[in-house]
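Two proteins follow. First one:
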Amino acid sequence: MDVRFWILFSFVLFTDVTSSTKKYSYLSEYPETFTFQRSLFDPSTVELRTMRIRRSISMAMSQHFGETTVMPGADIHLQCTVNGQHPGKFIWERDGILISSNTDSRYGISQTLSPNGGVTSQLNISHIRVDDGGLYACVAHHGETQLAHHDRMNVYGPPYIRTLPPFKVLSGQSVTLRCPYYGYPVREITWEYKGKEIKPDISQSSRYRRSVPSSIEIFGRKPKLRIKRDATVTSDGVLNIAKVNKNDNGGSYACVVRSPSGEMAKRSFELQVVEAPQLEEILLASDLQEGQIVQIHCNLKSGDSPVYYSWLKDGKKIPNHLKIVERSLEVFSVLIIKNVSLDHCGTYTCVAANHVAKVNRTVNLYIKVAPKWSEEPQNTSLLLGRSGHISCSANGYPQPQTHWLKKDVVSETWRPVLEVAGGGVLSLSNGSLMFDTVALSDAGLYTCHVENGVGEALSKTIWISVNKPVTFDTVLRNMTAKLGQQVTLECQAKGDDPIRIMWTRNEKPINPLTQRVKISEAKTDEGITSVLELLQTETSDAALYQCRAGNPFGADVYTVYLNILEPPSPPTDLSVDSIKSRSVKLSWRDMARSLAQYYTVQITNSQRLSWSTAREINVTRTDEIRHVVEIEDLQPSTGYTARVAGGNQADLSLFSTPVRLTTTEEAPTSPPLAVQLEQTESPGEIRVRWLPPPADAHNGLILGYRLRAVPQLGVIKENQETSDKIIKTASLYSKQENTVTGLLKGVRYAVSVAAFNSAGTGPFSIPLFQDTREGAPEEGPSSVECSGMTSSALRVSWQPIPPHKQAGALIGYTVLYAAQGRQWHNATTLVTELRLQGLSKFTNYTIKVAGFSNYGLGPFSFPIVCATLQDVPEAPAEIKLLSQSSNALLVSWKKPNQPNGRLLHYTVYCKPASSNDGPQSYRVDTQPNTDAYERTQTMELKGLTEGRQYDVWVTASTSIGEGPESRRVTNTPSQRVVAGVASLGGEVSVAVRNSLLLECKSVGAPPPRTVWYHNQNIITHHPRFTRNRDDSLLIKSIDQALSGNYTCLAKNLYGSDSVVYQVKVLPLPDPPSLRATPYKDSVVVQWDEIRVYNNESLAYGITYNLTWRESDGPWQEAWPVARESRLPGVQQHTLIGLKCGTKYSVRVTATDSVGTSIPALADVMTLGGAPVPPPSTDWLWSNASHIYIQLSGWDDGGCDVTKWDVEYRPLGSNLWHRAENKAPVDMNMGWSFYEGLYQAPPLRAMPTSFAIGPLSSANWYQLKVTATNDAGVASTVYTFATKNVDGEEIGPPSDMFDLNMLVIICSSILLIVCVFAFICILFKRRQNFSSQYRHSIAEDVKSRNESMTSQSEHKERYAHTPRIYTSPVHNRKTSKNEMFEISPYAEFALGFRTFDHVENQDLPSRLPGRPRFDTETSFQARSESDDSDSTSKATMSAIPRRHCRTPHHR
């Protein structure tokens, strides 16, 4: 009985027993350890823990059940979820016993896969009973890893303990026993040993433990002392025995469970401590011989019975054929071998086991055995040139050693075989002798000697002979003979006699008596030679001939492949696969069994057709059925004729039918001639004149020229502004002239010209140099920097304008600077640095710099802002001193008009008027102010003498220092305090729609009464005015009507005082007047500057924000423009990089210190239109396999074409095929290095021609060409035909069997039938309609009268509502809006808006269903934008975009 058997009944597992145990990781209680438990079939709750082993777990339990308490009869649901590797199985246990659906019909177990990849197992128990309670565990298995969670389920009821059979424990191990009880509630769980209670371990916390003094009896008994030190009981009733032994711990243990009501359950468990077996060492004699009797004894030293013995040999069960007898008693076991032999040698293991442990002892059995032949060597014959093998092996112990000797023929002595034979012989460890390649010298006498030191050695002498088999020096040969010639086949066989030879033809023997052949043989020194002669060869003689030779030692075959040649047949189906400018690809078809070995292709000029002078190209034949050759070094745009013939060693075949072809065009190979440059009157322009290239260098039809102008800047830059212009030509040989515009001013350019045709651009001419006229600078200075020097001076520096952007001789720079909201000032300098003097202290200045020359002022740089430094402030602007009480004065003052920096604090000085002592000073920190005006600062001076006069003054301080004193004010503290207002008034400016808080801080005894006046009118209740408790006045949402003087009057019994505020309400700026001028890819936006009446200085504080968008796209902000005027009072900005022929919306707002105006909107469309296709097929040409389209024949409409799409289909087909351009794109459109200086970048990779192919020759096709640019898409269908193989055009297409024409004819017939049927039906219904018409007249008159009455009521009801018009609208009086009426048959939708007001009626505050707008996007502006969008969608689609080429203004 092994350990598994003991585990099944004792239910205890050990950490040091290497048996198949189960490992449970109870993460809920011991997350860092594995707890070793009993078998799944164990009904007990005994646990045995000896150590904790840390191990990483590849699974994680994300959800598990907890301790549950229920009443009998309820339904319970337990669930566990494991994430990670999917467990292969989930099992459930109760008190260590496996439970399943078969345990009880009330038990249900399910397992599901959760969405997050985890596995969930559920245990459902219905109508639960008391005996269902206990310790439940869910266990997940995955491979060798097991993961478990256990917790109790308590069912209300009396306690009871499940039965357990006796279990056995290994002496010296620790034991954990858990009482398998059920029932609830439970007051305590105790254990007894031999009738005595085991004291609990007070160090463990428990839900059952109570804090009880030791002198108090529990249930009539005092706590008992612990019986044994190594036996403890935890608070939850688990018995732990640290180390068991047979004398102290064996016996009966009883578990006692008590309920609070006094019920008790008790169950005893028998613990049997068993000693592990121990074996004595196994001894064997060292001089054992073969044939003796051997006994192997295994004796038991100690251990409890019963002990079971088993034996292993070399780790396995002892085989039966060894005839080993085993005898075992209780205290020993013995193996008996009656006739020991070599097979019995090995390692023997004695295994002794009882119920708790298994031990073993091992001994090695070896005997000495003399060598015996297992494979005795014999005389052998080896074949020359091949490998050889001779066996010589013997058995014995120790392992016998084998040595090979060879008799030397010269010395007649025996020597080791490795010394005589050399490196070609190898002696293996098993005694075999190996020959890699047998030679004649390997023949002779050999001796195999075997010994192992036991008995007599073995020795055997053999003779090895070497024989020569038949061989051929060459085994394969190919022969070729012409038809009718004599052929001789010879084979030379080498080898030992006798040699026999046989000839075969196609693997069949040849009989010289019946065949047209002659065979002869001749003997040689090395063997024999055989000759086969064929007389007058025929085509059937081509076959596989073999000379088969053999002797008693081997055989070999000599093979000859004989091929009889005859002139081949001519190739067929010669066609042109592809045509290029200087090469053509031809292909032809030949038979699979053609006799041709090569082909000869002839090609000559079609205009000078002469085959005697034709160019010949030889092509080697391949295994392909169709052969292809590419002929190069041809002339572009030239007609050629080609033919092909096959040939072999016999002769050349006839030539095939010739084919005619024309090479495609190539870029011109010569530049234009006589290039001349001339300076124009306008800056940045150069006039160019030239003559076309020579006629023989055109390589096709010259379509136009490319002009390139490269600025000579002296420094190589990747972003050089190279001007590249394409010009279409109408004459091939006349003189050309063009003007290059948009160049840099005052810069030398290298100008070159190149011609281009449909294939690409030719070489550029040698660059000529010409200077453009000077002008105003084209860029502003860069890297403008500014720093404060003093409180009234700034230092401005910048980087000079690049020479190529100066547009000539630069004279100097102009610096514009202005404080915020003030007028601009300018200063001029000749260098790149300027110091600005006499500026305001601590003030932000906006600075921008521009260069100027004799031709005018260039653009300004991007504005920057910098500030002058701080200085000491001026004196406070105003001061006031009031008597507040008999010993206090209240001083108030206003901020200095010029702070000259950030004010840090104020200093208040106070001294008696008649005193010569120094004044007393008080520091008052400045407070942040967020109001519309500067609030009054106040301070209370206390501790003064009543009736004494005091002088008070105030100073302000910045980080630089203290400023001058304010004026001195005098007052005397008194008990009678006259009413006074400490707040200081003055001018207050506030933006419209903001709130304003006016202070009125008053003093007086008795407290004064305050009254507010607005323009001498007392302010009472008003929704805009709020009177606060501190007598301040809050004005809400102020407008122009609320401007004026506000007075606060304070009055008491002794007098009165007042403060006056002059409130000025600042309006929002008006929207600017906007104009937009479109160009091809840009729009020039201009607007008039806003003039602020009555305050010209405010106009300089207005900034403008320019935004734009494409159609209905998102708004984008342009570079902010700050007064960059080209004309006085006009702002201008250019939007560049726009799409050609596209609608854009432009919006400008004005912003000042008050706020932002409503936006001014303008819709504009850039110049250009959709591409215009040519009306005819003059720009198409073809050959036998391709159709070529000259894309330059399309008018781009003023916008560059960005995409070409071509589709084709055979005439009469309905399926279109998308074509790929087979014409190469000329990527190298630039000119090479000239004197190592410049290489212009490529213009763009757009094709100039489109090649469609390969197509069938002599067929009509329909081509759909689609050109796309920014303005639109143009698509046209052309009908064109490929030429035949001779290069000739074909006739017009036949319409008799055209599918499209057939559909049109059938449709016309069907339409005529339907019209005839409609006329018949209409004629029949007309008779019935006349009678119905009379009745409908009366009803129509009645309905019309009711409608007129309803319309009069409707008109009175909506007489005062706004009129609604659709856009666009016509001019009406001074309105800029346009109106027109929509046709009643219109089928499109337009946006609409309301215009004007009816009887001065106000617009509604908010339109239903429409969003509210801020100051930047008012309702009117949004309406205009929507109106313009809808107008463009409705009307612009009907107008061709290509006509929109003139600037227009909105």
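Second one, unrelated to the first:
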Amino acid sequence: MSHLWDHISLTPSNHLFPPLEFSFISIHPHAPEDYRSLQLELSSHSGLEESRLSHTIPKRAKPTYLAVDKENQIIGYVVPIFRSSQEFAAGFSDTDEARVRDTSAYMARRDMFTSGLEMQRSEQISRREAMRESAERISLNKRIHEHEEHFKRMNEDSLMHTPEFVIKPRSHTVWEKQCVRLHCTVSGWPDPRVVWYKNNVAIDPVANPGKYNLESKYNVHSLEINRCDFDDTAQYRVSAMNSKGELSAFASVVVKRFKGEIDESLPAPRHGPVSEYGVTFKTHIVDKFGVSFGREGETMSLGCTVIIYPTLHRYQPEVQWYRDDVLLSPSKWNHMHWSGDRATLTLTHLNKEDEGLYTLRVTTKSGYETYSAYIFVRDADAEVEGAPGAPLDVRCLDANKDYIIVTWKQPAVDGGNSILGYFVDRCEVGTNHWIQCNDTPVKFARFPVTGLVEGRSYAFRVRAVNKSGMSHPSRVSEPVAAMDPADRARIRGTSAPWTGQIIVTEEEPAEGIVPGRPGELQVTEATKNYVVLSWKPPGEKGLEGVMYYVEKCVSGTDNWQRVNTEIPVKSPRFALFDLSEGNSYRFRVRCCNSAGVGEPSDPTEATTVGDKLDIPSAPGKVVPTNNTDTSVVVSWEASCDAKELIGYYIETSLQGSSVWEPCNNKPVKGTRFICHGLMTGEKYVFRVRAMNAAGLSQFSPESEPVEVKAAIASPAPPYGITVLECVHDSMVLAWKQPTFIGGADITGYFVDYREVIDGVPGKWHEANIKAVSERAYRVSDLLENKKYQFQVRAANMAGVGIPSRPSDTFLCEEWTIAVPGPPHDLQIREVRSDSLVLLWKPPVYQGRDPVNGFYIDIKEANAPVEAWRGVNTKATEKTFIKIKNVQEGETFVFRVRAQNKAGVGKTSEETEPVLALTKPGTKEIVVDVNDDGVISLNFECCDLTPDSKFVWSKNYEEIADDSRVDTETKGKMSKAVFKSPGEEDVGIYSCFVTHTDGASSSYTLSEEELKRLLQISHDHKFPIIPLKSDLAVEMLEKGRVRFWLQAEKISANGKVDYVFNNNVVSQGEKYKMNFDKNTGVIEMTMESLTPADEGTYTFQMQDGKATNQSSLVLIGDVFKQLQKESEFQRKEWFRKQGPHFIEYLGYEVTPECCVVLKCKVGNMKKETSALWYKDGHEIKADEHLGFTEGVLKLEIAQRDSPADTVDVPRRLKISKKDSGVYEVVLKDDRGKDTSTLNLTDQGFKDLMNEVFSFIANSSTPLKITSTDEGIRLYTFVNYYNDLLQVTWHYKDSAIAFSDRIKSGVVGEQLWLQITEPTEKDTGKYAIEFNDGKGGLRRTVELSGQAFDDAFAEFQRLKAAATAERNRARVAGGLPDVVTIQEGKALNLTCNISGNPLPEITWLKNDREITSDEHCILKFESGRFASFTITGVNTSDSGKYSILVKNKYGTESADFTVSVFIPEEAGGKKK
């Protein structure tokens, strides 16, 4: 709007003085502060007379300070200034003529005096005249000052006046998460102070950082509210106040939202020019996480790269994560990390509570940016098939000292069977012991847990059960203490800040007053398991506070029973249990204190015990609508009259399928939800059910099927408007296609234009009523030498999109340049890693001569302008070019210039940046010649959309004439078929697929390629007999030899000649021939081979005119090898007539490290026996085998079973004694077969190496732990063997063990102990397992933080062990109780230990005693403490203690002495 400043003038309707002239400049509301500081200035003039100041001053009309355009639209503000001091002085004359006349007289006098008397004038001026002139100046200044004061009093509009709202704030209705800006314009002098209020409460931006943004510039005041929510719905007031008065204006803001879900497409918040360190930050969130799917128990990370420009060293933005608009805090479930340019949120252990809309918010001092995406969490795999999913959102609904009411939400997945109920488990905080709270499952999603210990904290979890089994437990709830609410409130309470006032809220309670009656008693919740009462305390109560007794009675009776008979409750809330379901009760409450029990409250209405909450009704009609190609928006009618509704679950199924899958695993509260993760092109149906604590409703009716595809929307605005040609009354415009076409083909464009006069745009006018299909259009009926702006809108079947941004301002004047105008409509096709094709259209303006060529320029997208370089040195006459040898992975832009005889013209607009990279799945055009000799070009595209079309072109012009080529498309394949190929068909053929990400390819049909294809076509028209396989030989059973080949296609009239060494052979005893005309298999078999059969074998075929033959040469070593193989197979056939080995004896090491000998046998029967031998001694016999073919096994080494090896590591029994030669013999009446396996020497080594390899691969990563002796490195293996060889390394060198560094094995743990470690022990450690091959090495780095943590833990454990060894102890010698007769002597001794030597103190009844004649206390030898009473009496009865103490700890031992007198009856103890 800056171009308006110098072109808007405004003259007030009346003047203070008629001849006074004003000039106005226009100041935009956002003009710099310098413009705002312009002030009115007055200059004195010596010729001003008193009579000119005393005339009547007319009343001045109020001027307006609003600048308007020709359409009376407010576009800025104006401030009046005086043109000059002389003009101000002249303004006091009666008329302009008088001012001119006075000026002429003065000029004449000045000329007269300067004609020679100037020197005399200065000498003749007397002192009196000088004083008179001085007095006149003083008088004039006084008059001007009086005039200014009078001007101030008379002109209150421009100086002292009350605030006035020139533009008042207007009300807004916005969607949730949008930003809203209220603004107003205020005039007044002095400048008013503006304050914004929300519901009459002043708004403080500092108290709500990032929420509110206040701005005041050039009398324009604004309030911006970011990320509106329901709490922002209010009446807002703006108050303007100065010394003359106060004025307010009001506006309302209403925040609306889609029920159940926030629309992710809402616009981003606006950012104001707030700066830090004088810098305005621009924030961009890139590399965003998308809609994600996880499973319970998994870990998921969400991350975005954040670019903040400009980059300031160590600048830290505020990074916040939200789930469903609730701010997340770091916890064991949520880990947040900011690396300086990337924000990451890691969900360490997914649960269904983690499902929701996640939002990243990055806040700087200049505003904030947000990004959101939905995260779905599916149930973990059930331990039992058909079991339901885990419940979710377990929390405490109510807590008291003897009960806690737990509530939860039902899962979406019931496993295919109805959920029978839920089990609630509790765990005391600090333990891991879970206790089931209910014996039978409860269906209501609330349960009172009783039997708790007051003051202790508990956590809860819930499991669902159906007839198939139990679900996984839910996520553990937050801990809650079993405590009276009054005590909890007192513990949590904090002191109020000092305000300088003492406020008395109640009268001081008087001592000895019986409390009054409780008020407003009501039943707040009633189920079949419990009833919750609440009430208000009485107004009158005693000094020490009140407690309460609760009473009940069965309806219809007056028999009141006290429920809490033992201890009254402190808080005004109580839960009653053990009520009979179905019975009706009334309740009342009494207050009590030390003064007594007060009167009862009014009883409640009769309450019937039972579940008052009904299962909600089924939701209504479900309507799915398209959203994206993988998601659908589902809306439904809410359940009618649903009470305490928790939310809805949505399920989907493929059309025609009976398998339903949940769309959400966390209930949504609205009636709209976006279901993600669907398959493009498939049809789905949806259903919904509602949920409250009573259970899940019936399913809604199924929706109509919806095909998953992107919704059609109006296209985005075109961009890049340029002028291609200009004449005196018209312009040809060109523009670029919108980046988003809305999912449907663009049907046309509409062009608007407006005239720009002195920088001020006029009104828009339509250039075309009917849409134009091309991206170029001539706008006619323009005025020559006038300036114009243009805008373009695109249209598709969904409607007309929003207009583009106004173009640059173009002058309509006829081009007279000799060179051509710019080419236009540049397009990129066939992008590959090393090449691409650029297309363009020639310029509309040809210049003085026709265009005769084009030059193409290229540069990297981010390179400066100087980086443009030419692609071709010689101009090309074509309107396309294939650019080769581009750098893979680099992004380029291109432009084109046309030339004619006069020279090279203007450059075109540059293309959009294009990445030189072959996209995955890219296909090329394939040429094909079928069996009939038809030549075709074939192109396949795997990324088709429902609206995609194949467009074939020749030389990059769409094929419109089908006389030479036919095109046809089936599914993902399209082909161009040549009707009669010839020289006319030579050229470049290309295929482009619309509505894809640029899928295209081309094929160059040159003259040489055409000749090759025509030859292939000829061969296909006149084919030889094709062969699937040439003549080959193979061995059959019993050593027979088969010669064969297979013809691909042969008719029933085909004939075959079999030729051996140029002689035709025929069917006979030696040769057996067969010709299967259905399969084309031709074969000849021979029973065996003799030396006479060495030579060349040929099959000759004929089928009509087609012939073919295939030969096989069998001579020399090839023939001898084949003959030897035939003889061997013949012998094998005879061997296999009896029991035999299909696979000979070998061994296998199982994953459990068991060594098993195995062999596969065949042709078995019941009488066949298998005998196992080791070193010639029979070790096992398998008889009466029940299979014909199978596997025989012998386990020679197995791991110890736990029952046999109590407290002994599970190790492998295999050892060197298991080495030997193993043999298996199969035999029966048909014969026998033998297989041998040598497991001695190298064979046994190979076996053990394989065992060691399994053990090594089972080892865990090397870990670090600390003991009281030092640092221990360890790893676990699944099984351990004593023969396993391991080597420990330190810094790649084998460790020499000593008393300080040791290694060993404990169970299945291999460890290395470093005693008393020091800094010298830091470094890289490794354990190497030797398996005879490459081995396996596990490493760990013991340095840096890892060493510091381990060393600190070692020091702690060492100190703890030292303290435990040396602390003071009392060991043995003291009984619990001593009963002794009066007068007897008592002597007790105990052992004392500790280093340093402990201090000993004896106590009686918790008071210290000292040694005297009656009670002798001794401590001898540093070990023995004795307690002796020489003669006990009844006064010695009591509790005695010995207390030992040193610097490591304190310990005590207690005993009781009871003295009795024998004469007392019954031996009564004292």
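SUMMARY FIELD: The chain has a mean pLDDT of 82. The two ends are 106 Å apart (CA to CA).
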